C-alpha cells in the first residue's frame, strides 16, 4: 500500500515495526489488498456534529425523563439532571481530547472503524480494549432493541387506532419496521447519513413542543387537583437509571468525531450538544411533574388528554427512535466488519453483515417484548462505566503517557498517573469516578430487583400473531389526572379507563 512506511511511525502492542493503527484502515487494507477510502470524503462540521450528539441522546429520554422526576422528586430531579449533564459533558470532552492526542501522535490514523476500543488500546492496553469492545457492543445492542420496540409499539397504535386496521399484530409491526430500517443501516458512517440525523432532531423538537402545548392545555384542570408522590431512597436510586440512560451517547461520540472535518472542534460540539439536551429535557420534565404528579406512568405523552397532540408527539418520537437506531447500531456494525475484514466499500460483505446484526436485534425484540426493566438495568450498569469511568481513565492514562512510552507501546502505571497528573484534575476525575461507580452499583442493585419482579410476556413466536396476545412494556393508555386520576379535561365518558 502506498505510504505504508508512514504508518509505521509508532509500534503496536509494543513490537517495533508494527503499525500503530492496527484497528484502523492500515492493517485492514494491508491484509485484504483493498484500497483505503479517501479520508476527507463526507466530513461534517462541528454544528452538525452537535446535532448528532443531541439526536443520539434524546428520544426515549423525552418521554421517560418526567417519570424519572416522579421517582426522584422535583428538587432532587433537577440536581440529578444538572449534575449528570455536567459530568457526562466533561467526560465527553475528555474523549475528544484523547482522540485528538491520538491524531497528533499519528497523523496518518486514517479511517478507523472502532475508535472507542482503539482509544482503550492506545491508552491502557489490549485487555482494556477487549473489555471496552464487549461493554460497548452489549450496550449499543440493548439500546437498539429498546428503540425498535418503542417505535414499533407507537406505530402499531397508529395502525390500529388511527387507521382502524386491526389485522396487523404488534409482532408483525416489529418485523416490518426492522425490514424498513435495514437499508438505512447500510450507510457506512455518520458522515453519510447526516440528513437523517437532522430529521431526527426536527422530530424531537416537534415532539417536545407538542407535549408542552398539551400540558399547557391540561394544566387549568389538572394542576389544582395534582398530587405528588412520596419519594424514597430506593425510588431515587431507581430514577438514576433513567437519568443516566437519557444522557448516554459516549459509545457513539468517537465515531461522530472521527467523521468531522476538524476533530479538534469536537469540544464545541459536546458543549452545545449537552446544553441543547438540557434545554429539551428540563422545561418538559419540570412542567410535566408540576401539572401531572402521581398520574404519570410509563410515558408523559399518555398523560396528555388532547388526542391529536398525543398522536403527533408519539409519531415524532417513533420517527426519532427509528433514526437514532441507525446511529446507535452503526459502531456495532463497523466493529463487526473490522473483525470479519469486510471491505470499507459498499458491497455484499457489508449487506450480509449488517443484515445479520439487524436479524439478531429483531430476534431479541421478539423474544423479550417487555424490555422496560432491562432498559433501567442497562442505564444503571453499563452506561456509567462507558460514559464516565472509561472516558476518564482513557484521559488520565493518555495525558500521563510520555512520547517515549507511546512510541514503545508501554503504558504508565497507576502510581505514575497519580504523580504526573495535575492534582486538581486528578481529584476531579477521582470524585467523578467515585460518584459513577457508587451510583452505578446502587442503581444496578435496584434495577436487578425490579427485573426480578417484572412479569414478562412470552415471545411473539410462541404466542401466535394476534395483537391481543402481545403485551409489551410500552402500552398506549388514556390517563386522567388529579389525585384520584379521575379528571377528564374534555369531560369524555369513560376516558379515564386505560386501553
UniProtKB/TrEMBL annotation:
Organism classification: Eukaryota, Metazoa, Ecdysozoa, Nematoda, Chromadorea
Where in the cell is the protein located? Membrane
Provide the leader sequence positions: none
- Principal localization reads membrane
Identification of the protein by name: Amino acid transporter transmembrane domain-containing protein
Name the InterPro entries for this protein.
AA_transpt_TM
Any single GO CC term annotated in Swiss-Prot or TrEMBL for this entry: membrane
**Which PANTHER family does the protein's record reference?**
OS05G0424000 PROTEIN-RELATED
Report domain Amino acid transporter transmembrane positions: 42-417
Q: What keywords sit in the KW lines?
A: Membrane, Transmembrane, Transmembrane helix, Transport
Which parts pass through the membrane?
44-68, 74-93, 134-159, 165-186, 193-217, 237-257, 269-291, 311-330, 351-368, 374-398, 425-445
Is Transmembrane set as a keyword in this record?
yes
Amino acid at each position: 500500500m502506498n505510504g505504508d512506511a508512514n504508518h509505521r511511525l509508532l509500534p503496536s502492542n509494543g513490537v517495533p515495526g508494527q503499525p500503530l493503527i492496527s484497528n484502523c484502515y492500515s492493517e485492514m487494507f494491508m491484509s485484504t489488498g483493498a484500497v483505503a477510502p479517501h479520508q476527507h470524503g463526507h466530513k461534517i462540521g462541528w454544528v452538525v456534529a452537535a446535532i448528532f450528539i443531541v439526536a443520539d441522546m434524546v428520544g426515549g429520554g423525552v418521554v421517560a425523563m418526567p417519570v424519572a422526576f416522579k421517582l426522584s422528586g422535583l428538587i432532587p430531579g433537577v440536581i440529578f439532571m444538572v449534575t449528570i449533564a455536567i459530568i457526562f459533558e466533561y467526560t465527553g470532552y475528555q474523549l475528544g481530547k484523547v482522540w485528538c492526542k491520538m491524531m497528533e501522535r499519528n497523523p496518518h490514523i486514517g479511517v478507523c472503524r472502532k475508535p472507542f476500543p482503539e482509544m482503550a488500546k492506545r491508552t491502557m492496553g489490549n485487555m482494556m480494549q477487549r473489555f471496552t469492545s464487549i461493554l460497548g457492543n452489549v450496550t449499543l445492542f440493548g439500546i437498539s432493541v429498546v428503540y425498535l420496540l418503542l417505535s414499533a409499539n407507537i406505530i402499531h397504535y397508529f395502525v390500529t387506532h388511527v387507521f382502524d386496521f386491526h389485522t396487523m399484530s404488534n409482532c408483525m409491526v416489529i418485523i416490518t419496521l426492522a425490514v424498513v430500517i435495514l437499508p438505512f443501516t447500510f450507510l457506512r458512517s455518520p458522515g453519510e447519513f447526516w440528513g437523517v440525523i437532522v430529521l431526527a432532531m426536527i422530530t424531537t423538537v416537534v415532539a417536545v413542543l407538542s407535549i408542552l402545548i398539551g400540558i399547557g392545555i391540561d394544566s387549568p384542570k389538572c394542576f389544582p387537583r395534582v398530587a405528588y408522590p412520596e419519594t424514597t431512597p430506593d425510588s431515587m436510586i431507581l430514577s438514576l437509571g433513567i437519568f443516566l440512560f437519557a444522557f448516554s451517547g459516549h459509545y457513539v461520540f468517537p465515531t461522530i468525531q472521527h467523521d468531522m472535518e476538524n476533530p479538534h472542534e469536537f469540544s464545541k460540539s459536546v458543549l452545545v450538544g449537552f446544553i441543547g439536551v438540557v434545554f429539551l429535557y428540563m422545561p418538559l420534565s419540570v412542567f410535566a411533574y408540576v401539572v401531572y404528579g402521581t398520574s404519570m406512568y410509563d410515558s408523559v405523552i399518555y398523560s396528555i388528554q388532547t388526542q391529536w397532540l398525543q398522536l403527533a408527539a408519539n409519531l415524532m418520537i417513533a420517527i426519532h427512535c427509528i433514526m437514532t437506531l441507525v446511529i446507535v447500531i452503526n459502531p456495532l456494525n463497523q466493529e463487526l466488519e473490522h473483525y470479519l475484514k469486510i471491505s470499507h466499500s459498499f458491497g455484499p460483505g457489508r449487506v450480509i453483515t449488517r443484515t445479520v446484526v439487524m436479524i439478531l436485534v429483531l430476534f431479541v425484540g421478539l423474544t423479550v417484548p417487555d424490555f422496560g426493566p432491562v432498559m433501567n438495568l442497562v442505564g444503571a450498569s453499563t452506561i456509567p462505566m462507558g460514559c464516565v469511568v472509561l472516558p476518564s481513565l482513557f484521559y488520565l492514562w493518555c495525558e500521563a503517557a510520555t512520547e517515549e512510552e507511546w512510541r514503545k507501546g508501554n503504558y504508565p502505571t497507576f502510581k505514575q498517573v497519580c504523580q504526573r497528573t495535575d492534582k486538581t484534575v486528578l481529584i476531579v476525575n477521582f470524585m467523578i469516578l467515585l460518584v459513577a461507580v457508587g451510583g452505578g452499583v446502587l442503581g444496578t442493585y435496584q434495577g436487578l430487583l425490579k427485573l426480578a419482579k417484572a412479569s414478562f410476556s412470552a415471545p411473539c413466536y410462541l404466542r401466535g400473531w394476534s395483537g391481543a396476545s402481545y403485551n409489551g412494556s410500552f402500552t398506549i393508555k388514556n390517563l386522567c389526572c388529579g389525585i384520584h386520576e379521575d379528571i377528564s379535561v374534555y369531560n369524555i365518558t369513560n376516558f379515564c379507563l386505560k386501553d
